[in-house]
């Protein structure tokens, strides 16, 4: 099964993902952006204040396509548990926010449409919920995506995604202390795996 972790920067998602390695030593742990050269291209675009927002969406999407064919689909075909730190919802939430002011009329629907044609949706998604101010302060606002005003729109997009598919998401309160967040994520994954196996 495919479980993804999502949330704003500074939500503690990566810490939780790392903690899960010990609990599920046989699972495949992966992330987006990936460490491939597609991922490098994504990071290069993220570092460019003037990057074209649509071009950037396609770089992220190219990285996702490669991630799917190289890592995610083969692992799922082997019956592995795959846990990804960020996945398609990051595009729906972040790039829809970046493209809000663009000529695209409904960026979130557009980006979902692109993915629908080729992607493999997660079986479950753990959403680490944190307010944009805390997220921006924790993340240190080192890249253009980490500013509070931008993260406010990203969070609204995540809420729209959760409203559209409430059963896929498990919401965890990420304003709690990190050790409590890790524990809540671990318990959620345990329940999801058990329900999937039943
Ligand atoms: P992340 O790996 O969470 O941050 P870090 O490199 O600090 O560990 O993600 C990097 C940034 O990329 C983050 O600000 C969110 C952004 N992002 C998108 O905008 N769209 C995407 O599809 C993905 C996967 C990430």
UniProtKB/TrEMBL annotation:
Keywords: ATP-binding, Kinase, Nucleotide biosynthesis, Nucleotide-binding, Transferase
Residue ranges occupied by any Thymidylate kinase-like domain in the UniProt entry: 5-184
EC annotation from Swiss-Prot or TrEMBL: 2.7.4.9
GO cellular component: cytoplasm
MF terms (GO), sorted A to Z: ATP binding; dTMP kinase activity
Binding site for ATP: 7-14
SUPFAM superfamilies associated with the record: P-loop containing nucleoside triphosphate hydrolases
Catalytic activity of the protein: dTMP + ATP = dTDP + ADP
Biological processes per GO annotation: dTDP biosynthetic process; dTTP biosynthetic process; dUDP biosynthetic process
Homology family: Belongs to the thymidylate kinase family.
Matching PANTHER family: THYMIDYLATE KINASE, UMP-CMP KINASE 2, MITOCHONDRIAL
Protein name in the entry: Probable thymidylate kinase
UniProt source species: Halogeometricum limi
């Amino acid at each position: 099964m495919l479980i993804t972790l999502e949330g704003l920067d500074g939500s503690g998602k990566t810490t939780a993902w790392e903690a899960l390695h010990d609990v599920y030593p046989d699972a495949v742990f992966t992330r987006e952006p990936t460490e491939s050269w597609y991922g490098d291209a994504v990071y290069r675009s993220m570092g460019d204040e003037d990057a074209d927002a649509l071009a950037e969406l396609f770089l992220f999407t190219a990285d996702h396509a490669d991630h799917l064919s190289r890592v995610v689909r083969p692992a799922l075909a082997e019956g592995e548990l795959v846990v990804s730190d960020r996945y398609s919802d990051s595009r729906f939430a972040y790039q829809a926010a970046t493209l809000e002011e663009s000529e695209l009329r409904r960026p979130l629907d557009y980006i979902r449409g692109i993915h629908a044609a080729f992607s493999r949706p997660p079986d479950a998604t753990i959403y680490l919920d944190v307010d944009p101010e805390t997220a921006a302060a924790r993340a240190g606002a080192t890249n253009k995506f980490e500013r509070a005003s931008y993260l406010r729109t990203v969070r609204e997009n995540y809420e729209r995604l959760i409203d559209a598919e409430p059963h896929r998401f498990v919401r965890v309160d990420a304003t709690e202390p990190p050790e409590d967040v890790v524990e809540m994520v671990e318990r959620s994954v345990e329940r999801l795996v058990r329900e999937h196996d039943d």
